[in-house]
Amino acid sequence: MLCGVAVGVFAQQSSAPVARYEMRAETMSGFGAMGAGGGGMGAAMAMAMGGSPRAQHMLWLDLGSSRAAADGKPKAEHFMPAGAKLGKSVLLKTPVTKPAEPGNAEFQRPKGRMLIFWGCGEHAPKGQPVVIDFSKLAAGQVPPGLWSTAVPVDRWVSPASSKTYGTWPSDDGKSAKPDSALPGAHRIVSNYAPELSFSLTRDFMGPLNASSSAIGSGATLLRWGAVAEATGYYAMIIGGKQAPKGQDMADIVWWSSSATRQFGGGLSDWLAPSTVARLVADKTVMSPQTTTCTVPAEVKAAAPDYMYGTLHAYGPEEGFAYPPRPADPKAKWVPEWTARIRHRSTTGFLVGVEGFPGANSATGQEPPKPQCKPKKKGLGGLLGGAVGGALGIPGGSGDGC
Fold first, then answer.
1. Total-model pTM
2. How far is residue 153's CA from residue 237's CA, in Å, rounded to a whole number?
């Protein structure tokens, strides 16, 4: 007789699919929208008038297959519903790898420090900040417990995980538009993978509106409007101060809203709803009901010259497979293909700049005001790509009251 056998022991057996398809849909607002297609004169005029650039829709597509094109010339198309406003289809291009050209750049040991703070509250608790000396980090002296292990980094489809790989945006001159919509029939046809066909029901998420204001203690109150279908929120701020004359770099400050000293890694990714639920439970991610967070006064004191913030609203996921997973857990599952789409909404903002990103260009609504009165009393080359990767794209309940 078997006793205490884990449930996972009898998990359904399955084989890897021939093809994996992944879609990532993002709504970008605030300063982030300027770099996502909302820049130019229109964005500058919106800022000058106290408004914000129009929220942008962004879409990434990746197809990976264990097969090669018979003629050695991979081709793939994603046929979209009319609401996507991307024409009949978009082309998924297979990147051409070119040999790296020899460089003669002189290595310079990084200088300066990074000060890491985390958690919502008017004041940073004892033990903060953690100080990272870049020169020591480059020499291999890594502070214990620096890297997050609680937030998984997803294994997305990539050239490394595929025999043949196709991706979009490509050089077809197309990109998602502010009024692009995703619901409807989608079909992916290629000469190196089975044909994929599925229908999406969820659209791009609504835009995030975030604003900040100083409170009497010297802390900064962040607030934002709730976004429908958000599974949780995560904020981070990168700041600093100008280096003294004659010095190359001053301190860089990194703050995370996580109450558990988690930062970087998968937190800057499109997290699955099940992962977000676990992170909300352990206070690494703020709950979907949270709409405020107080940045400790010590963060502003350490970064008096500039503070740039990013706020993520993680969203829903849809998944598909052919043939579908058998209902009988004892039956082996041999899928030809799998597909999934994940959503998030992101905004970027300058901390301390009142009124921006302010009103929502889509609804004209201001972020909600706190329901109570505040008490008186978040580079890559410098870190060898480790922390830099986490910063590339840019818990507990808010306690601003």
1. 0.81
2. 20
